[in-house]
Each structure stands twice: as C-alpha cells, then as structure tokens.
C-alpha cells in the first residue's frame, strides 16, 4: 500500500455557512482501496464531519471501501484538441464580466441554479434553504 502524501484542505467559508467541519481531499491514481483506513484516520483526527473527496473514476473501489454515503458524482471527460473539428466563425462576443454586469450575472445565476440540487441537499436533517442560493 502506498503512503498517502496529501493533506486535507479545510473549507472554512463552507463551515461557517453550513455548520459542519468540512474538508476537501483530492487523490490521484496511485491511491488504492487499502488507503481507505488512512483516510478515515485523517478525517477522524481532524474531526471532519463532511468530506469532499475527488478521485479518478477508475478508483471508485476506494470510495466503496470508505463506506461513505455518496452524495454527488462529477465525471470529467478530456479530449486532445487536435481531434476536435475547427469551430465555425461566430458573431458571439465572449468577454470578462465587469462591475456593471454584476446585477445581470447574479440574476442569471439565480435563474439557472434555482432548482439545482447539490450534494449538500442530500443531507435530510439540514433545511434545504440553508444550501440554496436564492
């Protein structure tokens, strides 16, 4: 079994908002199910109540060995750009938002995410409104 040489990264802003001691841990492809015990020790010694764990998709056995409740799953796909066909010209302007755009951006976010359920919403004892952006 390889040694886990990563550190828990504490989410102070989320802890203040949600009331949990929250941490994030990102693992690479060298991690194996046998690392589950060390991850549990790290979380217990740091009094972690909610862990956001990022692992490569081929390492799902590690997550299963942890016996955690899976609240959310993100899958990322990669493709070398040389395999993509050339984009057609467009008149669409893409630019960085400015201070003047703040109200419009906030409204767009509110509308786009008003019914969005994240992994935080899976925690039944917590009021849904606590995790909503609106």
Features:
134 residues; 3-stranded mixed β-sheet; 4 helices; 27% helix; 9% strand
Helix and strand topology:
Elements: E1 9-10, H1 12-18, E2 22-26, H2 36-45, E3 50-54, H3 60-66, H4 102-113
Parallel strand pairs: 2-3
Antiparallel strand pairs: 1-2
Short précis:
By secondary structure, the protein is an alpha+beta fold.
Outline the structure in words.
27% of the residues lie in helices and 9% in strands. The protein has 134 residues and is an alpha+beta fold. The protein has one domain (9-131). Strand 2 (22-26), helix 2 and strand 3 form a beta-alpha-beta unit. It is extended, with a radius of gyration of 19 Å.
Low-pLDDT runs of 5+ residues are none
Mean pLDDT: 77
What is the chain-wise order of helices and strands?
Answer: EHEHEHH
Strands across the major sheet, in which order? 1-2-3
Give the fraction of residues assigned to helices.
25-40%
Strand tally: 3
Structural class: alpha+beta
Beta-strand content estimate: 5-15%
Q: Please state the overall shape, judged from the principal axes of the Cα atoms.
A: extended
| Biggest sheet architecture | 3 strands, mixed
- State the end-to-end CA separation: 45 Å
Count of discrete domains: 1
Helical stretch tally: 4
Radius of gyration: 19 Å
């Amino acid at each position: 079994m390889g040694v886990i040489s990563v550190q828990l990264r504490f989410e102070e802003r989320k802890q203040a908002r949600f009331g949990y001691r929250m941490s994030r841990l990102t693992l690479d492809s060298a991690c194996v199910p046998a690392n589950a015990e060390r991850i549990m020790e790290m979380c217990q010694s740091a009094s972690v109540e909610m862990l956001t764990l990022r692992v490569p998709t081929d390492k799902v056995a590690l997550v299963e060995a942890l016996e955690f409740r899976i609240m959310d799953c993100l899958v990322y796909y990669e493709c070398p750009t040389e395999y993509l066909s050339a984009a057609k010209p467009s008149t669409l302007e893409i630019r960085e938002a400015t201070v003047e755009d703040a109200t419009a951006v906030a409204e767009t976010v509110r509308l786009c995410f008003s019914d969005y359920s994240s992994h935080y919403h899976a925690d039944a004892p917590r009021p849904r409104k606590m995790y909503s952006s609106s």
